[in-house]
Amino acid sequence: MRKETNEKTTRIIFHILAWVVILGLPIYSAIKFRMGSNFLVTYYIFAAINALIFYTNYLLLVPVLFFQTKRYRYYIAILALVFLFYFISDFSNKQIFSYISKNGNSEQVNGPPVDKQGRIQRPPLRLRPRIIIAVPNAQILGYISSSLLMIFLSLGLRVLERQSKFEKIQEEMEKARLNAELALLKNQISPHFFFNTLNNIYSLSKINPEDSRTAILKLSKMMRYLLYDSEDGDTKLSNELDLMTNYIDLMKLRLEKNYDLRVKFPDEYEDFRIPPLLFIPFIENAFKHGVSFRGDSFIDIYLATSENTIIFRSLNSISGLIAGTGLESSGIGLNNVRKRLDLLFPAKHDLQLNKTESTYEVLLKIQVTS
């Protein structure tokens, strides 16, 4: 509402300034070229008629008739407007001409002034507007040209304002759509993540009940993070690092020790605001496809910050059983992350997924604001 009020005020100020210039220029010309008052009277009546045509079309005819289905009503109204103001203009011109004819030589009643030597002082040359009464076609042509100019200017300005308004509405709708899609993507990731985590805890409870209780505590912290810390749509990088640490600890409790896990998170960093659950799908994918129970395997997770950039890297081995399955289509997690990155960081992120016969690497760089 405040934004619309500011835009309306700006338009009003623009119109006022434009008319100040239009009405002020003749005064300057009259003073500089020593034109009489008849010139100003003629000009201002002409300007008033054109202003009435402009604002009748701008404020009334275009909003009420032009944007309707039956547009022919608008063209009929325009013809009526032009004819109406032609008669007003013609009547005004006749009154001006009559006035000038009667009072044009009133300045010479007392005779010309003389100097001390008795010589006649000629008054400075004054340019008077040339009044052509004998050529009515020229008067009609001038009126039609000026009135059509006012009509097209007011119509074009109104159409541009309406188009600008529609574009702003479209932009707001697009933002609302993006927010709804982001919320849907987040809701898709969260159940997907918790489904796998609960399965891990269930498997762990059969092996080690004590560790399963620790895992439940870590999971409760993660749920608190998702329910409260990220409810505003974004979160701190420190909270996201805690989430990733808790998740990795949960996976370490469940998995066997026949894999090499290397995790490197920064000790000192700028605590950026970022979307939640941005890196978890990559870590989840690394544990899902990077740990083999039949041979040696490894997972390498790295995150660092540099100025306004977050760099995340995940590298894991691929077991022979899943090497040909295609990791990018292995679940909704990675696809959702791609969509979220495109929506949240357009032209400000670089996601590279590099797959070989034995390794799978994720390299993500995001430009963020402090």
Structure commentary:
- By secondary structure, this protein is of the alpha+beta class.
- The chain has two domains: 2-101 and 129-170, no CATH class; 208-367, Histidine kinase-like ATPase, C-terminal domain (Heat Shock Protein 90).
- It has eight helices and seven strands.
- The chain has helices at residues 2-32, 37-66, 72-103, 136-207, 209-229, 237-254, 280-290, 332-344, and strands spanning 235-236, 259-264, 273-274, 297-306, 309-317, 349-355, 359-367.
- Strands 2-4-5-7-6 form a five-stranded mixed beta sheet, with helices on one face. The protein has a two-stranded antiparallel sheet with strand order 1-3.
- Helix 2 (37-66) crosses helix 4 and helix 4 (136-207) packs parallel to helix 6 (237-254).
